[in-house]
Write a structure and sequence with these properties.
This protein is an alpha+beta fold and 134 residues long. It has a single domain (31-133), classed as Immunoglobulin-like, CATH 2.60.40. The protein is built from 2 helices and 9 strands, in the order αββββββαβββ. The strands form 3 sheets. The chain has a 4-stranded antiparallel beta sheet with strand order 3-4-9-8, with no helix packed on it. The longest helix is centred in the N-terminal third of the chain and has 23 residues, at 6-28. The chain starts with 5 loop residues before the first helix and ends with a strand. 11% of the residues are buried.
Length: 134
């Protein structure tokens, strides 16, 4: 349906953009429960190049020693914890949007067998490179 009034069209477009932005914000860090304990799921980008698969997992403020990566037949599991800083335990919170506590993300991989070739945590993103076997 075309809107003849440019002002109405622009307003409708702006509302659509705001709706999409809110949806993405809610989707960015999903919350779940496993074995009765709450956890959050970090967002993941995945792309293939030649014989490797690269995954970027957004883990803001997570130290490398807080991350565990496991390659299984069902896919890849990234889990760990982002502890609540001591200062936040005593603070008056005005806004808390980045999740703390346990996180876990189970990622289905494209068909094939893989080995973990590279793992590095840099600038808040965990970069995982998987080499395709055979």
């Amino acid at each position: 349906m075309r809107v003849r009034d440019p002002g109405s069209w622009m307003w409708a477009q702006a509302l659509d953009l705001l709706h999409d932005a809110e949806r993405l914000q809610r989707q960015f860090f999903r919350i779940g429960t496993r074995e009765g304990a709450p956890y959050w799921e970090p967002p993941v980008d995945m792309y293939a190049c030649d014989d490797s698969l690269t995954l970027l997992v957004a883990l803001p403020g997570v130290a490398a020693q807080q991350v565990e990566v496991a390659l299984a037949t069902a896919g890849l599991i990234v889990r760990g914890e982002r502890p609540l800083p001591e200062a936040l335990r005593r603070a008056t919170l005005h806004r808390l949007e980045i999740p703390y506590g346990r996180f876990e993300r189970r990622i289905a991989l494209p068909q094939g067998e893989y080995r973990l070739a590279e793992q590095q945590l840099e600038s808040g993103c965990l970069k995982l490179v998987l080499q395709r076997l055979a």
